[in-house]
Amino acid sequence: MKTEDLKTLSDQELEQELKKLNSNKTLHAVLIGVFIGVAVYSAVKNGFGFFTFFPLFFVYILLDSKKKIKRINEEIHFRNSK
After folding, report:
1. I want to staple 9 with a disulfide (CB 3.0 to 4.6 A). Which of 13, 18, 30, 71 is the partner?
2. Cα–Cα distances in Å, from 54 out to 26, 46, 48?
């Protein structure tokens, strides 16, 4: 979700989006741990290769959700400070 999209959402829609992203925090933490574990195991067992770096791509995608939460919080704070 881009910053421009956040400006078009109502306050209630922003709160719903924030709740949805916050509810997935535990799942994302578990998945990040699993993906990093797979990458480390692959590096130790088979050396560096495709299956070492492929799970790290998914870690990057999951970490992007943190950026979305930050942008939504900034937008809510900006609207409340007006």
Report:
1. 13
2. 22, 14, 11
